[in-house]
Design a protein that fits this description.
about 35% helix, 18 helices, 28 strands, seven-stranded antiparallel β-sheet
Length: about 675
Amino acid sequence: MSKLNPVLAQVRPAKSFPLWPSMIFLGLILLLGFVAWGIDFVGLKRASDAKAFLVSSWVLSYLIPAAAVITFLLTLRNNYRRFRGPVFGAMLLLVLFQGSVVGLGFVNLKKIAEGGPYSSTREYVPLSSRPSVWPDPLQPATFDLGGGVRLSMSLVCWVDSSKQTLPRTVPKTFPRPEQDTSTRPLTARSLQNLVAFTKAMGYVRFFHPSDEATKVYWNHLAVLGVQAIEDAASPEELAHKLQAFFVQVAPTVQFLAPGETVKNLELPKGATQLVRWRHQGMGLVNEHGGFGFSRSVRLADVAITWTVMQHFYPYFDVVACDWSAELPRALQQAAVDPDDQSSLRTLRKLVAALKDGHGKVSRAQKQDRLVPLLDLRILEGRAYVKAGPKEIPRGSEILAVDGESMPDRLARCRLEISAATEGSMNSRLAWKVVSGCSGPKARLAIRTPQGRPMDVEVALEKYSNEFWAQGLPAQLAELGLGLWYVDLDRIEEGEFLAALPKLAEAKGVIFDLRGYPKMGPRFLQHLTKQPIQSARWNVPVVTEPDGRGWQWNTSGRWNLKPLQPHIKGKVVFLTGGGAISYAESCLGIVEAYKLAEIVGEPSAGTNGNVNPFSLPGGSSVSWTGMKVLKHDGSQHHGIGILPTIPVSPTPKGLAEGRDEVLEKGLEVVAR
């Protein structure tokens, strides 16, 4: 402060910023800033459109701290002689922290402008210079919804000089959905109605860019729509009900019964621009649930999930999935699901049809997951114990769990697991078949490696990542003279960097990548002498429904430069069906640049950023929102990274307590 005083002394103190009132005001601003930031952090705000959500978040969380910084500086300027000591130090630290938050705000604003990895934005062009690739708003497209009804809808809207879409409708407040806990099945007519509603909702929600459609909560609207549309008795009544429902958010759409024709549209007065949706992937803002467990909520959950995947899932071209057939099946089941868990299973079966290793439907855990601590391997349709309680010999086969035979349990669980490869499916089955026990103990029927049948009870315990590391060496271990083992699932980057001098001079290094790495891809940079790149991420740019007219944003890519010290010895990577996503990004570089031998089984065959969204019933759905191809442009999904030296565990090896994949890796680096 002493060096600053002569400068500040030139400024005449102003009465508008006296010290203590300013300090109180500053404290209130800081408190408000912290509260707003905390609210933003835990995600309690809701908004109907992604950009509005981000902008409101930026204003609340960053402009308030900016006001705190300005107030502090003005107070300091006008009270420099008194603003010192502990008070000055404490307030300075608080304001510096808030200043850093302001900096993050500008970074966030840049992300808003760029759209981020997934974003849904509306783009505008002058009406007088409409590009040829934009549809003519006076020539709407027609979509067959089934149930005898068609939808006529343009993918663009007119906009006036103030960027409001035309024509406009009177804003409507939608009521809270009625609670209906019945489990009545769908009639053939009501099923057709709900299929038509689901398809119409997807077209309007994602491709009709009216202001009204961006300002509603679609989770809410989906539940109301199910209730409004289900009981239509004929195609004519269905078209009438759909028109009455959707005209509130899409003023120009037309629903046509058999024999009806499209009415001519007219250019609204004052129209100067056109607007359309431009989806880079699917930029959904999560709308929280809270609608309770009811029949219409269950049906809306299915409808929303189906529409998102129908228009944005990037792997329909390589998976064997009749997605159109999945919709009526899931709607029929959701209508009669008797409880929350049954509804959850219905959604999981729907997502499982996508064969997406990231595909998952979950609910918030209200308590710790309790499971029997059994590390299993699924080999040729049977479940074998790799590690578990001492009363269960290693290599034992599980024959039944809680009275359900293992073949039946495996078949049931497979229906609820989304996996792109058999190895990924087996990896997830190993966990799934022993979860869901109603315990306090799980009752197991087993057969020991010697063929002796046994009945065993195993206590349910809190899920533990450490348990699944049983039988492995330490995350960094020398397995022989100059032969090192590095478990990328467990090692921290600092520990890896500290060991680099030894690894660089080692005769051989085994990187265990059978799961999900805990550190960044830096380890790859010590294996190469030339710059290397990841596979290219392909984010779909979607402006038309049903997978038509996709373009791809391929800008995202790792560019990794070689780092010293270079690891000189022979290198092996271990992998298998549990290696997914980021692990496959790393393995893809190893495969493309031939940085090492790959030992084990094929990886999960699922890569690309996860893109979650929430449902009215409180579930969260995760899925892969982008397409990843291998470096040479060939298919990755459903294939994965293939080992150069294939090795699989065997029941005999499990019984002997051996890790046959690791043994083969050690053999390779020791040559």
